[in-house]
Amino acid sequence: MTTPILRRRAARCATALLLSGCGAQDLANTWELDRLRVLAIAAEPAELRPGETTALRSLVYVPTGATFGTGIWIGCLPSAADSFGCGGDSSALESLAELDPATATPEELAAALETAREAGLLGLDPFFPPTWTAPTDALDGLDPRQQAEGISAVINLTVTEGERADGADPDLELVYKRVPVSVSPTPNHNPAIAGWLVDGEPWSESEGPLPVQSGATLSIEPVLSADSLEAYTYENTAGEVEDRVEEPYFTWFTEAGDFDQALSLYPEVAVEWTAPKALDSEALIVAVARDRRGGMAWRTLQVVVQ
Amino acid sequence: MARPQPHAGAATPRPALSRVLATVAALRLAPLPLLASGLLLAAPAVAQDEEPLVQEPALLELVQAAYPAEAEAAGIEGRVLLLIEIDEKGVPSAVSVLEPAGHGFDEAAVAAAQAFRFVPAATASGPVPVAIEFGYEFRLSAPEPAAPEDGTAAPIDAPPVTLEGTLVEMGTRRPLADLPVQVQASDGRSFDVMSDSVGHFEVPGAPIGAASLRVIAPGFDDSPTTVEITAGEVTSVKLWVRNLSYRDNEIVAVYQKQRAPEVTRRTLTAAEIRRVPGAFGDPVRVIQNLPGAARGPFGLGLLVIRGANPEDSNVYVDGVEVPIIYHLGGYRSVVNAELIDSVDYLPGGYGVKYGRSTGGVIDVQSSRTYEDQKKFTWKTDILDTGLFFKGKVGEEQKWGVQLGARRSYIDAFIPFFTQGTQFTIKPRWFDYQAKADRLVKGDDQLTVFAFGFQDKLFIQTPDDFAQGSDADTQGDLSTVYQTHRQIVSWTHRFDDRWSLWVQPAIGVDDIQVGLGTSFTLEQRFTNAALRSELRWTQSEALGVNLGLDTNLTYYKIGFSLPFLPDFTQLQDPLAEREPFRQTIDGWYVSPDPYLDLRWRPFGEALLINPGVRLNTLKVGEADALVSLDPRLGTRWSVTPTTAVKAGTGIYQQPPQGQEFGIAEENLTVNFERGWTHEVGVEQRIGDSGTLDWTGFYKGLDKLIVQNPDAGDATTDAIYVNEGIGRIYGMEIMLRKALVDRWFGWVSYTLSKSERNDYPTRSTQRTADGVVTRGPAAWYNYDFDQTNILTIIGGYRLPRDFEVSGRFQHVTGNPYTPYDLAVQDLDSDSWAPIQTGAKNTARLGAYTALDLRADKLFTFKYWQLEVYLDLLNVIRGENPEQLQYNYDYTESAVIRGLPFIASPGFQADFRF
Fold first, then answer.
1. Which residues of A touch B891 (CB under 8 A)?
2. Of A146, A244, A265, the CB nearest to B466
3. Boundary (domain end) residue, out of A185, A216, A240
4. Which of A14, A231, B255, B855 has CB atoms 3.0–4.6 Å from B131's, for a disulfide?
């Protein structure tokens, strides 16, 4: 009783932090694009009112030598979600995923799709573009302040690789994101990355791949469009209306080379990227922007190492 | 074969050429950091009753043994190790041979020792019987120079003293008593005299002129010292004598026999503790090498006792509970080793004096013995540097004082190892101790003791470096925790049967944590504790202790965080946050009375030790929790060398920290409960070996677990007493005491610790909301280590040079396997999907060899010990934790500490 667990845990945590440098490991960094990855999902519009429909799109990285298989989209309200996204009965979706569109009859496909929609299916890449419609009663039961704050509907995407030539099991990625539903007077919009600053100088993809010296380190900074940093209002628990401004952040990915950090936070959004040693190699660099209100955007930069 | 005794004047002729020397040095009882071994657990309720000695036994009267004639004739020398049991009056009650030498030496040594007389050992309650190991050496004297042949006749009348002096041991400044001094005069004559009890000697009739003095005794340097004896006065000299092996004097083990003479308090001597590689000379760290103590990751010193979680074991300093016992990193205990007298390690089955814990207990006892000389110590190694003073002060030296302070400087070195990273790690600590013991003998004993420590950890990152995607967790991490205690201990002896011990203490425990600008936590626990015991000893056959263990704590907790107004949005990174600050305070009190009985119904062979403890807890205005812990310990000495022991008892632990929950003004959880059973055997092997075996089983129930039905945090109980557990196994310790230059022990623990959080529920829901059918499964405790083997050995080389080593092999800790995760794209994080049952996979075994070498240098006024610890000599990879990549598709082990060479030194000044 005189030694509450919290005190001991604080000491233990501090000690663990002290020694965390003992285990330098050779694990994959989050920025390394070397396997099937879902890098982003964007909904357009980014925030809905009840009854509105949004179109969903994803940024999926498929490594060289692999193929895209299928992408299954499902959605649900937060009451049906847990820390893995939308739960529920997935058997109908699994039967759909196992269906081969090339050999299935139209009747079989239609029946499977109908069953899957009833189970929450929103779309099936690459066949049916996903959309989601916010139920008209999504905000029922909430007080006006809560309705303005809104709820976060959940969208799950399960992506599988196509058949592998070596017979290995196709890779699988499970992701989810939220789509706000509210009656906010200042609904959110997706940000946009308008261009790049490379070592402080503007660079346009129209000029072709960015040439980089082998082993050189570049400063790469994404340039947001002028309207990306949105101002919005928030009614706090005291009933006061606050004016707030978005503080977006960026996640970084590359097929080669190394970043000095996997994330960059506004306003320090530039990162340093060090090119690989291999000559004449090309690499893709991706920046994904999040505005912390559900909005997402991305842009790619192709580089060639000389 | 007696030869004419060369002598001059009135020097006492010796009766024979042989000289019998007892190793009286063995009784120079330096304060011994006595370490109770894990085997103490087998006699739980008795061992915990033993009070520390405030007075070691001291030899008053040494009787010279007769040198066996046959051995003398054959030129044989020998050394006999005796075990002398000394009663409360200082009279040897029994003498037995631990290490025989044969040739008649054993009988001669025993006969002489039986005639010894001692100042009896004493605790704060008065004189107590003890047993000591005593080395008795038989050495033949060196050939004496021939008597002068000029026919010089010895004078009939005693001549005047012309030379006097004092023998002083180099380095320690201790007077050397009962040692022979040989004076070689300028005229060729030789004078032999003995120093008295204070090291003083006189030489009557030594002629004027140069004289050569030397001590001729085993273990001491016999290099001569020349003095000039002048006419008309008595020449005085202080003769500094070098001990050839200071550390031989440490071969002393005191077995306290106060109330339970058949219960042996097993000890590791100061010499053993200092030489355990990897322990950095810290007695508390040595516990990690004893049976039942599991190994914490990175050797952090987590108190994992018999598989229980660290928070289930309690730590005390002089009976006062403290939250932690190690500084940051676990390499240094928070109490200076110089101040520690003993460490009681009680892995289970302990008596009713200790409570509020279902795991083990460690009680660090401060030293209460003082040498005549004052001592100043400076110790430095790669971690910290410290100063310590110990000595008698005041008028007539009625007070013993100890003052110490240490400060780490490891933060100055860490940046060299973290270059190239984005983190700057700065761990710092300091500690202090101030203690005063009233040394006046009588019916009252008084001690005042203050100690404390502070640990800081600061992790700094550049402003433009992102630490995760959460805007509120950017910035530096700062952690500060500190503890301070002030203790007064008073013992009053009413008569031979009644005594009272009262120990009030106050203190404070602080924690401050800050992360970035949004997260802060400040906790302050202000404690007032009162321990007392009314002790009644009817006779050797019956004694009763009525005790009270009270703790009153006022807590104040303040925290600030980015607040989510809607509880249902806890997992939503898109939810808007508000700054939030709250402070809560309150109090809880736990006055626990206990009754402890010691009963010997059939003489000394059998001890029965029942006890009962009442656990109480009152938090604020909530109804009090009350429970009862009955415990029973027994010990039967089957033969003089064999003892059987057994015990059983209930141990209950109150809810801790965040487990508190109050609904409708009452606590929503109750005590956790453990029922421990133990049985064991102790067997003495040969002269200095012991074998201890203990088997144990602990059943646990009412373990506090999260309430899976909790919905609304404001009204539902977050925790419930639904979990059960079981911990069982056996412990073996085979030990060779530090006799005949080497010591060592083999400690082996075979155990299993597992628990089931929801054994009665038909469906299970994890924190993630996943529901499975059927009762929950048993799973391993986080630190369940099936096999723990430790082998330690040390050897004493000549000239105060020593080497030692430690080998450890420990089963790896369990972990929960994952190989898949779901990504939350809004927070850019991954939630792992458990692909196996909890804690079913295991890390690889830990195997390490550590070595140590140290050398003691002795100068006239001080001593210097230098040492070098070589850790992980075989460079084992030793997986300590499993680390996953971002999406849990890859994993790799975090290895243990690499090979490390750790030098250090300690300088002792006596004055």
1. 27
2. A265
3. A185
4. B255
Among A185, A213, A244, give the residue marking a domain's end: A185
CB contact under 8 A, B511 and A9: no
Among A3, A249, A294, beta carbon nearest to B469: A249
* Chain B residues within 8 A of A15 when measuring between CB atoms: 300, 328-330
Amino acid identity at B193:
V
Q: Does residue A7 lie in a domain region?
A: no
In this complex, do A17 and B477 lie within 8 Å of one another by their Cβ atoms?
A: yes
Q: Which one of A9, A15, A145 makes the best mutation probe of the B interface by having the most chain B beta carbons within 10 Å?
A: A15
Domain count, chain A: 2
Interface of A with B in 47-76 (CB under 8 A): none
Tell me if B886 and A173 make a contact (CB, 8 A cut-off): no
Q: In this structure, are A164 and A133 located in the same domain?
A: yes
The beta-carbon neighbor of B466 closest among A149, A173, A264 is A264
The answer as to whether A273 is a domain residue is: yes
pLDDT digits (tens, 9 = 90+) for A70-107: 898 999 898 888 778 887 556 666 667 677 767 778 78
Neighboring chain A residues of B578 at a CB cutoff of 8 Å: 236-237
Sheet holding A282-290, edge to edge: A210-212, A296-305, A282-290, A249-254, A263-265
Going by the DSSP 8-state scheme, the letter that residue B792 receives in this structure is E
Q: Are residues A165 and A281 in the same domain?
A: no
Predicted confidence (pLDDT) per residue in B699-749, tens digit: 999 999 988 777 666 667 788 899 999 999 999 999 887 666 788 899 999
Instruction: Please tell me whether residue B45 adopts helix, strand or coil conformation.
Output: helix
Interchain CB distance below 8 Å, A293 and B574? yes
Judgement on whether residues A116 and A231 belong to the same structural domain of the protein:
no
Q: What distance in Å separates the CA atoms of residue A96 and residue A113, rounded to the nearest whole number?
A: 7
A25 touches chain B (CB under 8 A): yes
**What is the residue type of B328?**
L
Spell out which residues of chain B touch residue A263, defining contact as CB-CB under 8 Å.
Answer: 466, 468-469, 828
- Across chain B, mean pLDDT equals 80
Same-domain status, A175 and A202: no
User: What is the pLDDT, as a whole number, of residue B6?
Assistant: 27
Would you give the DSSP letter of residue B481? E
Predicted local distance difference test score (pLDDT) of residue A145: 87
Question: Domain B157-245, CATH 2.60.40.10 — does that match?
Answer: yes
Partner-chain residue, chosen from B421, B769, B823, that has the shortest CB–CB distance to A38: B823
Domain hosting residue A48, numbered range: 28-185
Q: Which CATH class is domain B361-910?
A: mainly beta
- B538/B770: higher pLDDT: B538
Is residue A12 domain-resident?
Answer: no
Which chain B residues contact residue A172 at CB under 8 A?
Answer: 820
**Does any CB of chain B come closer than 8 Å to the CB of residue A84?**
yes
Q: What is the ipTM of this complex?
A: 0.90
In angstroms, the CA B403 to CA B450 distance is 10
Examine the domain organization and report whether A53 and A138 are in the same domain.
Answer: yes
Spatial CB neighbours of B741, under 8 Å, sequence gap ≥ 6: B795, B796
Q: Are residues A140 and A269 in the same domain?
A: no
Residue A1 lies in a domain: no
Domain parsing of chain B, residue ranges: 157-245, 361-910
Residues A167 and A212 in one domain: no
Q: Does A103 touch chain B (CB under 8 A)?
A: no
CATH number at residue A282: 2.60.40.10
